[in-house]
Every structure is written in C-alpha cells, then in structure tokens.
Predict the 3D structure of the following.
Amino acid sequence: RVTTLSDATTEALVRANTVIIENADLSADATAKAYNAATKTALFGDGRKLDDLLSKDEFDKVRRAIKSTRAALRPFRPWVVSLMLTGSECERRRLSDGQLVLDMQIADRARQLGIPINGVETTAQQLAALAAIPDDEQVGILRSNIALMDENENLIETMVQLYLTRRVGALWDLQIALAEKAGVPATSFASFEQKIIVDRNRRMRDRSLYYLEKGGAFIAVGALHLPGKTGLVALLREAGYTLTAIE
C-alpha cells in the first residue's frame, strides 16, 4: 500500500530532471564501510554492558527477539539495539523476498528512466546522528521499544494508516504518547528529535536548495521530515519557495 505511487506522483517523477532521496548510496559495499567505520560508536568503550542498563526481563526479551546470545549482545550501545528491533516481521519477510522499500523503488524507477539520482546525506551521517544521542536517552528509547515490542504489528499498521491518510504530523505525537504510556518520559526523546529530525531537516534543506535552483528536482524523504515548524516544508517556504500539494 505504501509503495503504490499515485498518478500525480508518478507523473512528477517521470518529468523530473533529477531524483533526490535521503541516501543515494545504499550499495552493500558503501553500507558495509559505513557500519565498519561506526563500530567504535556502536560499542561501549568504558566497561559498561547493555545488561547493566536494562532489567533482566528487558535484556532477555531483546535477546530472544533478535535471536542473540547474551555475550554477543552485551557490548552494544542502546541505539544499535533499537535499530535491530526496528520494523515488523512482515516487512522483514518482504525485504528478504527482494521487495524494495519506497525510496529504493523510486530510485529504481529513476534508473529505468535514466534520471540521475542523488542523496541529501550519507549512511555515515545517519549513523553518527544516532550515536550522538546521550546514552541515558538511548536507554529510554530502547525501553520504549521493548515495552511496545508485543504490539509492534499493530503500531506499524497504525503508522501506515496515518501515512496513507496524509496525517504524517501525528506520527511523532503517536510515538511520544505510546512511550509515555509505557512509562518512558518524553524527555527521553529530546535529543532524538533534535539530532535525528530537526538537525537533519536543516541539512536536507541545504542540500535540496542546490537541486531546486537547477529545477526539475523530485525529492523524496521520510515522512517525519515533512511536518511542523522545523519540517522540510516550512524550511523551504522560509527559503522563499512556494509549496503546493499536488493531491
């Protein structure tokens, strides 16, 4: 449902001179290099272990979910484990079957049309932003993910429905509300919101301006980067552009 493009969106894509996605280089080689470079930030370097920060029940629940041994899981910082828990089982099956996520489908269509593809950031920048979140907030986010793990399929479906009905502004509010219901305060997401959403929105704005000035740019970024006063839509309007919904 998410990867089905409307006629208006398809027409805009076909007429584009260039296609911009968040990360244009997701080749296995580039991704492997970025993850290897991020190894130092992925592991504790001060003697702490993940099971020191979580309860036994929380740690065991994560270990079972990602099918890991205790020894293998202990060195990882919380942001890495949160990444491991991302997504639903049905989505993982789709990916293992070779189906592409939305931005990769857009990039694949652009390649077929011979349209140049560029990115507004790199894998290394994305991982560095996650690693920069303070550890105490990383633990809070991970605890929220663990608490919601059994409802993950329902959560994903709710997010899909919000996306399909163009209520993307509610996605972040939903995350915060569910975290607070699980006993994790909204303050645990403060750095995440700043570093993963707000700061990256500005970087996306700066990179997008270069392509927008040339004209004919089709830009596709994650839904959380669009709404709000610090969202990409508002930032581009502040930069002097007129934005109009095409549907």
About this structure: The mean pLDDT is 90. The chain is about 60% helix and 5% strand. The beta strands are 18-21, 117-119, 217-220. The first helix runs from residue 7 to 14.
